[in-house]
Amino acid sequence: MPTTVFTIANQKGGVGKTTTAVNLSAALADKKIPTLLIDLDPQANATSALGVEKQEGRSLYGPLRGEAVALAMVTPTGIPHLSIIPSEEDLAAAEIELAQTENYLARLRGVLEPVRASGEYRAIIIDCPPSLGMLSMNSLAAADYLLIALQCEYMALEGLGQILRNVDRLKTAGVNPALALGGVVMTMFDTRTSLSRQVVEEVKKHLPEKIFASVIPRTVRLSEAPSFGQTIFAYDPLSPGATAYRNLAKECIERFGLKD
Hints:
The chain is of the alpha/beta class. It has a single domain (4-256), classed as 3-Layer(aba) Sandwich (Rossmann fold), CATH 3.40.50. 42% of the residues lie in helices and 14% in strands. The protein has helices at 17-30, 45-49, 61-64, 91-98, 107-118, 134-142, 155-172, 194-206, 220-224, 232-235, 240-256; strands spanning 4-9, 35-39, 75-76, 82-85, 123-127, 145-151, 180-187. The longest helix has 18 residues, at 155-172. 45% of the residues are buried. The model has no long low-confidence stretch (mean pLDDT 93).
């Protein structure tokens, strides 16, 4: 089976992007789908959320500079079927250095080619920084599908338009003509407010085929779990957040044909 690369992006921070990357990866792994999570954010939140120690020289910084190979950076997570390429602060330098290299938007795609070719992973999920800088643009250039984590608030809709315009630019410029919007994950849904429902309805109106039915609730348990270095499934497996991410994983498996 071929490897499918997803990038989870949003130029806004605090929208549940990393929470989605970590818990979707773990939920796919739980379904015995070999999954690799790539932490491309210099803040390394996905790395610490899985309880993985940050180690010098284990991020994609070296491979992006042509000084190492990505497969050598793969680190076990302690969760069966889930590995990670962790992040560290040196990735912040890559934002600046990439702009000075030849073919700068395609660097990550080249770095990941041997990982895809290895056939070790069915799904690769890239967690991006909360900006549309060099690292995020590289992840869009390397992905088959973009998954957008979108907070249930009105300002989020403006950000949605911005990221979709960037996808169009990458396709038009021939950087990644095959890139497709895989779906929109509505996060931080507050059942007590009509605003959350209105935002979901608005996105449904614009992107009816792309919005996932699984809506991620705003819960304290989801925000607590990373501080213990745990996924929501280890921290509170019966919580509404755990149920929502299990359902999202099922949708992804079906939508993208991730099982044989």
